[in-house]
Protein: Apple domain-containing protein
Amino acid sequence: MDYTGVLTQYSYPKGSNGEQSWSIVQYIPEDICHAIFHDFGSGACGYNSYCSMSNGRPNCTCPVGYSPMDRNNPFGGCKPNFPLGCGVGDASENLEELYELQELKNVNWPLGDYERLQPYSEDQCRTSCFQDCLCDVAIFGNSICWKKRIPLGNGRFEIGNSKALIKVRKGPWDYPGPTCSIDKKEKSILLGSLSASLVLNAFLLILAPLILFLKPKRKSDRIASTMNKAGVLIE
Structure:
């Protein structure tokens, strides 16, 4: 089994004259993109990514406007490069001026749709997704419009009549993510707490050896006081 989760069976001809080589007999499963499929799972490639097969192994791809969560892990899923959802931008703005729908043929994220509209034309599906701040992706096919929001699971390439309409932000958008800042008052409290902790630790380090040194001496004094005049220890 390799790192993709696919078990590959190889064979080597018996009595080879040196010109033969290992050959692949089968892959298990044959299509891991469709084999890993669950209502609450991310699929073979992680959330917001889609899976396609090449030479028996999965390839994971981020849709336009998305980038890998971890560039060292192709199966870790993808994240949007811009903010999505309700409350983004000016409420008075037309969402069609902020976003555009990028078309991705033969790609689907089955399950997880929160609204199904039919019979619908592609233009109606596009308009509905534009006007709905919850809609991040719409899948259109056979006069049916499935509206979905991230995170998208079970993404995969599949031949058919459907297409994915990916909502992406128009133009450049700086989205550095959340930051953490500390104001001057909080900084002073933090520094004061650290200073007090350092002083207390230093005091304990000095006090501990003195306690250990004095304890045996006190014990010997108590033993001497319990001896009678004949030199017999009274317990």
